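FIELD: query
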Amino acid sequence: MDLKEYLEIQTREIERHKWIESEKAGRDLGMDAVVDWIKKYADSFSDQYFQKSEL
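FIELD: result
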């Protein structure tokens, strides 16, 4: 497992979520969107990443 790669991919996913949700809201949601991603997607993201890296 490459921790640097994991964190880079995770950061891109968070930024993508932040952008999409901010566009929907018509304003920059900032940390609210980051927290939203963590609550909704962090566990499944980690599971999928580590499952993929085991292959």
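FIELD: remark
The longest helix spans residues 31-54.
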